[in-house]
Amino acid sequence: MNLREAEPADASAIAELTLQLGYPVEADVMRDRLLALKLRHDHLVLVAVIDHAIGGWVHAHAAEALESGFRVEVVGLVVAERFRRRGVGRRLMEAAEKWAVAQGAPVLVVRSNVRRTESQVFYPSLGFAVNKTQTVYHKRLPRKDTSGPAG
Asked: N or C terminus: fewer CB in 10 A for the chain?
């Protein structure tokens, strides 16, 4: 297994894995997202390459929150079903933690849907403790019109 930064050419494989999380996304949309994130130094996107295939990915984001200060949050982690229970998720999380330390973050945060029962064992095994439970609200916003002149 080799960990490396995600590249736009990985978009199709990353999109397939993202579907396993329940988030369908087209490969070209994923490619655009990867291109945008590569320009930002406050994001880390790594892939695990196993037997010449993308076996998993992790996305971490460093941010300053007014109420809680500077932190790094793992905003996405997925391992392909066929590669689970082989240490892939652990290696990806260790890399995210190492990056968080290098950013100077005092805390690494990860959120997980309560329906993902396997994560309720996985994250504590890595030293994470439940901090709180919450309800997440979601509101779709209208798309910004970028077709006409500003003004």
From this structure: C
For residue range 104-125, what is the model confidence (pLDDT) as tens digits?
A: 999 999 998 877 878 888 988 9
Distances (CA, A) of 14 to 6, 22, 46, 124: 9, 13, 10, 26
Please name the residues in contact with 98: beta carbons below 8 A apart, sequence gap of 6 or more.
none
What DSSP element (H or E) covers 117?
none
Residues 6+ apart with CB under 8 A from 54: 10, 13, 14, 17, 47, 48, 80
The H-or-E segment that residue 68 falls in is none
DSSP state of 106: S
* pLDDT value at 136 more than 90: no
pLDDT in tens, 17-37: 999 888 999 999 999 999 999
- What is the 8-class DSSP label of residue 73? E
